[in-house]
């Protein structure tokens, strides 16, 4: 033993104990040695007990340095005896409830405790006086004994489980023997830090390998006491041991062997355990040390330090250790998810092009097989990285992106070889993730020959994909940039994420693509993502649309994103129609279009409020979406009426926006109006309820004072409150009377005069209505009548229709037709009789709401004197709403619906008769509105077959006769209507033609009603001779 000491160390020790040596003679020392060896007192001849034997060992330890090895070996038993007695006391105390303990055990502990204190005092003194001689020996002995005691007594009832580190640490630190050993080791480590820390740390690592996990409490305590030293020295010792065992063979180990504890390299497993315990409180220090180790392995070695200097480890100056550092760190990360998570995120920041070039230079000399194994290990580590996955992915994608693609950000262009390496690494990562994701359902572990023994293993967890799930939006945005290669990698990763995360992640990915796509090419990525997912995830598109609706309702999108989302949904629906037109047989695209259409139809009540959204682009996109969506088979009446009301309101808003500040032919405005018309037509054809609601609101909206100007109607003159002068606002009558009383002297009079204000404010300013653009008005009327005719022609679920195409003379031209203009248009679709009746009833309710629906018969002409006020109101309605005549034309085309407008026709005709009777003009052209109204009235009544053909043609002669003669002809119309009341029962339906007709032969002789016509013709034969054939019975 003494040979291990250096000469100066031994001399120092002997000098320090010279006073002790002088107290014993050689004979006494010989007796002590014999007593220690035999265990018998040489003077009394009795056997030494444990306490006496231990004291004899301590005396030899103080006096005979050569015996120190044997003494320390003997003291192992003493410490073990003390620990056993200590644990027996705890177990007895637990059994007895803490009331009493074994007397023998207490005596044993108390007898040995003073020995333990004495041994601790001797060892501490030796370490203090001669650290280089005693610290290595004592540290190895103490740490090995701690490991043996921890393992031997781990199964005792009083000892907590090895996983309960805090309870275990509290138990052993309350034991005097183990606490003494721990203090001795700490003193040795503190003494050896300056000159030889490796020996102390090597002993710690060796013991940790042998006695883990029962030894973990020692590691935790030592690491907490010397965190910086332990971390750096443990890593350095682990690196040296890793290299000593041959890091090439370690690199060749498969990823399965890296995980299997039985095949670990001894020291590296202990390094992982120690750092794992320290990570809970010293994670930042571990992370900094690992990153420093990585940086130092790539930097140039210092020229002033010898290659094997002990310094902070000495490995920085060894080329072999420097080359083994990166493989060593990879192995550490593979063995410890904690260490992997600590450095994975920050490591990316160091991987700049210069560092990558250094790595390439360091590994280019490796054999191909070893390099492949290292790449495979790196791929495995990336897939198992619990944090920083997004940063790692961005680094790989940026580095692997071809140089022809412009990369956003300050990232410099990497070298071609580095780019190729990252490209390959990224491809390997995607392939590895693909295998992990699609093999999860079998319950296998990531490596086949280490699969769980249980047949029902849990699905494999992939931390890299778990961390990326919160970055779905960013991944979709990067994918939609459509950069070469890059978007293919990210799109494949999105697909893997969707399969791995299930319906929630897939729904989020599709929702993000629908929201962020800016054109059809980008939107095609959504279809490409849906194609592989549709086979494994059912109900994906309905869930996606529901999530989009939730985003809209929670107002998470700005106006631009909202309009973009709605347009993308509409484009997805319309893609089926485009493929059909182009004869492209894409079953997947068609399936997606159908699914989106069905999903949107289930949320129409959620989308319809957006029709009235404040932003024009959003409302336009909503109209486009709803116009191409199908209505659900079953929908509540409340939702239907809400949708009809919103659609009609949007129609008038879009018509106004088309003309405000834009040309009439503006493409965007025309498209919006077209979408709105298509939506209204679909709603009207859905059911009789929606047909009635749409037509009613169209008529009411066109007659509303807010929309009247769109169709050439007259604006109401401003009221008196609008013409008040600012000088008359806030006038005080009290102040006026005070001034008035002082200005006029009424003394001596019995009268008092007060000023009560000003009666009136003078003449009202003349109201000059603004003149709308005639072309724009005509265009608006054409649009209104077009959508009305479309709604009436859709049927609304009714099988009865009217195919008379002469509906709406003004539908084609949008203005009052001249007498020479034809009122029949063969291009217009047939008008549904029930739809025309809805318009007729709505017109009557809005023009004269006080009239009962049953007033269909016509009274004598003198009876008009009793309804003058109502008739004047009807005439004013027609004067202020030019579109009323166009609506009458539509009603007339849907025979016999015009019968329900009898009261309106009668009131208008009555005022026209009164006007022409009182007229003193020479020509009818001097009253242009009345002339046009008379022509339109008679033509509509003829179109609706309220008049026979011979009477319905009289409007052709109105422009050529005098006002009085016009009255005579209109009076004949009145007499015919009085004698042949307009009753719907007079019309019969022809099933062959699908039309309603009226047989005028049943009404008797018409000749007596055309006598005034013949008289007027004879009187004006020179002007009307060419029209005589039109009035033959």
Record the SSE blueprint.
Layout: H1 7-16, H2 18-21, H3 26-38, H4 50-63, H5 68-95, H6 103-129, H7 131-152, H8 165-173, H9 176-192, H10 197-211, H11 216-225, H12 227-244, H13 247-252, H14 255-259, H15 266-298, H16 319-335, H17 337-350, H18 353-363, H19 368-383, H20 389-400, H21 416-438, H22 463-468, H23 472-479, H24 486-501, H25 503-516, H26 520-533, H27 540-553, H28 559-581, H29 587-601, H30 604-607, H31 616-628, H32 637-659, H33 667-684, H34 688-703, H35 733-743, H36 774-794, H37 809-813, H38 833-847, H39 868-880, H40 883-893, H41 902-918, H42 928-943, H43 949-952, H44 963-979, E1 987-990, E2 995-998, H45 1011-1019, H46 1021-1024
Antiparallel strand pairs: 1-2
Q: What descriptors fit this protein?
A:
1033 residues; mainly alpha; 2 strands; rod-shaped; disordered N terminus; ARM-type_fold; INTS5_N
The rounded Rg comes to 52 Å
In percent, how helical is the residue content?
A: 55-70%
Overall outline: rod-shaped
How much beta, percentage-wise?
under 5%
How far apart are the first and last residues' alpha carbons, in Å? 148 Å
Main pleated-sheet profile = 2 strands, antiparallel
Can you tell me about this structure?
- The protein has a two-stranded antiparallel sheet with strand order 1-2.
- The chain is an all-alpha fold.
- The model is unreliable at 1-22, 249-265, 304-313, 442-457, 719-726 and 797-827 (pLDDT under 50).
- The radius of gyration is 52 Å and the shape is rod-shaped.
- Helix 15 (266-298) packs parallel to helix 17 and helix 31 (616-628) crosses helix 33 (667-684).
- It has 46 helices and two strands.
């Amino acid at each position: 033993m003494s040979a291990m000491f250096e000469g100066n160390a031994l001399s120092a020790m002997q000098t320090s104990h010279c006073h002790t040596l002088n107290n014993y003679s050689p004979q006494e020392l010989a007796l002590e040695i014999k007593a220690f060896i035999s265990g018998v007192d040489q003077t009394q001849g009795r056997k030494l007990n444990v306490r006496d034997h231990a004291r004899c060992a301590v005396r030899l330890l103080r006096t005979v340095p050569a015996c120190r090895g044997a003494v320390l070996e003997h003291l192992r038993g003493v410490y073990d005896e003390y620990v056993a007695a200590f644990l027996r006391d705890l177990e007895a105390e637990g059994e007895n409830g803490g009331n009493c303990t074994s007397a023998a055990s207490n005596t044993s502990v108390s007898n040995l405790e003073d020995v333990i204190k004495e041994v601790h005092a001797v060892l501490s003194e030796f370490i203090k006086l001669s650290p280089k001689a005693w610290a290595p020996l004592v540290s190895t002995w103490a740490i090995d004994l701690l490991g043996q005691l921890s393992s031997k007594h781990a199964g005792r009832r009083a000892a907590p489980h090895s996983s309960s580190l805090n309870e275990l640490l509290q138990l052993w630190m309350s034991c005097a023997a183990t606490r003494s050993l721990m203090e001795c080791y700490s003193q040795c480590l503190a003494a050896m830090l300056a000159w030889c820390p490796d020996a102390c740390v090597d002993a710690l690592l060796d013991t940790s390998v042998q006695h883990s996990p029962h030894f973990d409490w020692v590691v935790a305590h030592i690491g907490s006491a010397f965190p910086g030293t332990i971390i750096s020295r443990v890593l350095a010792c682990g690196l040296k041991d890793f290299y000593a065992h041959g890091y090439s063979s370690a690199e060749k180990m498969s990823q399965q062997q890296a995980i299997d504890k039985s095949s670990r390299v001894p020291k590296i497993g202990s390094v992982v355990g120690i750092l794992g315990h320290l990570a809970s409180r010293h994670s930042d220090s571990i992370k900094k040390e690992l990153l420093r180790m990585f940086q130092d392995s790539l930097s140039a070695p210092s020229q002033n330090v010898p290659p094997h200097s002990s310094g902070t480890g000495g490995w920085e100056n060894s080329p072999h250790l420097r080359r083994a550092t990166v493989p060593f760190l990879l192995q550490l990360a593979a063995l410890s998810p904690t260490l992997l998570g600590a450095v994975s995120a920050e490591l990316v920041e160091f991987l700049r092009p210069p560092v990558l070039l250094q790595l390439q230079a360091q590994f280019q000399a490796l054999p191909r097989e070893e390099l492949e194994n290292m790449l495979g290990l790196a791929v495995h580590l990336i897939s198992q990285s619990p944090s920083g996955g997004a940063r790692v992915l961005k680094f790989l994608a940026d580095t692997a992106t071809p140089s022809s693609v412009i990369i956003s950000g300050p990232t410099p262009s990497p070298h071609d070889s580095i780019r190729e390496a990252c490209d390959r690494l990224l491809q390997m990562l995607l392939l590895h993730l693909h295998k992990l994701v699609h093999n999860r359902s079998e319950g296998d572990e990531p490596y086949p020959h280490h699969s769980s023994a249980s047949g029902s293993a849990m699905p494999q967890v992939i931390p890299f994909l778990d961390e990326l799930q919160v970055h779905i939006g960013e991944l979709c945005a990067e994918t939609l940039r459509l950069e070469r290669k890059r978007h293919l990698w990210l799109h494949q990763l999105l697909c893997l994420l969707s399969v791995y995360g299930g319906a929630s992640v897939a729904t989020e990915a599709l929702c993000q693509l629908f929201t962020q796509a800016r054109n059809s090419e980008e939107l095609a990525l959504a279809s490409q993502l849906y194609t592989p997912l549709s086979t494994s995830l059912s109900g994906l598109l309905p869930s996606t649309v529901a999530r989009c609706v939730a985003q809209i309702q929670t107002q998470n999108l700005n106006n631009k994103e909202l309009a973009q989302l709605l347009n993308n949904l509409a484009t997805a629906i319309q893609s089926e129609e485009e493929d059909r037109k182009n004869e492209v047989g894409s079953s997947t695209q068609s399936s997606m279009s159908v699914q989106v259409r069905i999903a949107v139809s289930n949320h129409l009540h959620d989308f319809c409020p957006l029709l009235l959204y404040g932003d024009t682009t959003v409302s336009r996109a909503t109209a486009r979406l709803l116009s191409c969506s199908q209505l659900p088979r079953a929908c509540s009446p409340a939702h239907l009426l809400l949708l009809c009301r919103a659609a009609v309101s949007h129609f008038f808003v879009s018509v106004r926006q088309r003309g405000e500040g834009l040309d009439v032919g503006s493409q965007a405005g025309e498209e919006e109006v077209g979408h709105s018309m298509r939506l209204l037509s679909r709603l009207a054809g859905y059911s009789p309820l929606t047909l009635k609601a749409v037509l009613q609101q169209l008529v009411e909206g066109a007659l509303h004072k807010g929309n009247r100007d769109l169709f050439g109607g007259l604006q109401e003159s401003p009221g008196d409150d609008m013409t008040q002068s600012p000088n008359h606002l806030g006038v005080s009558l009290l102040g006026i009377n005070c001034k008035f009383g002082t200005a006029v002297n009424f003394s001596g009079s019995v009268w008092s005069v007060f000023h009560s204000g000003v009666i009136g404010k003078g003449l009202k300013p003349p109201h000059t209505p603004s003149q709308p653009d005639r072309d724009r008005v005509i265009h608006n009327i054409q649009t209104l009548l077009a959508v009305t005719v479309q709604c009436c022609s859709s049927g609304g679920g009714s099988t009865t229709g009217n195919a008379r195409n002469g509906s709406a003379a003004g539908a084609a031209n949008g203005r009052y037709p001249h007498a020479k203009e034809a009122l029949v248009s063969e291009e217009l679709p047939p008008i549904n009789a029930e739809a025309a009746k809805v318009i007729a009833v709505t017109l009557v309710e809005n023009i004269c709401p006080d009239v009962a629906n049953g007033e269909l018969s016509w009274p004598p002409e003198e009876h008009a004197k009793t309804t003058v006020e109502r008739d004047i109101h009807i005439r004013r309605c027609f004067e202020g709403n030019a579109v009323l005549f166009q609506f009458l034309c539509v009603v007339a085309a849907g025979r016999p619906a015009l019968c329900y407008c009898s009261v309106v026709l009668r009131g208008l005709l009555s005022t026209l008769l009164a006007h022409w009777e009182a007229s003193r003009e020479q020509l009818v052209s001097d009253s242009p509105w009345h002339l046009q109204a008379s022509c339109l009235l008679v033509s509509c009544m003829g179109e609706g077959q309220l008049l026979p053909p011979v009477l319905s043609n009289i409007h052709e002669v109105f422009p050529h006769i005098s006002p009085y003669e016009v009255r005579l002809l209109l009076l004949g119309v009145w007499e015919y209507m009085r004698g042949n009341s307009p009753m719907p029962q007079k019309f019969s339906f022809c099933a062959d033609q699908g039309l309603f007709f009226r047989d005028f032969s049943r009404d008797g002789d018409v000749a007596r009603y055309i006598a005034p016509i013949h008289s007027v013709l004879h009187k004006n034969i020179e002007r009307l001779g060419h029209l005589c054939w039109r009035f033959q019975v």
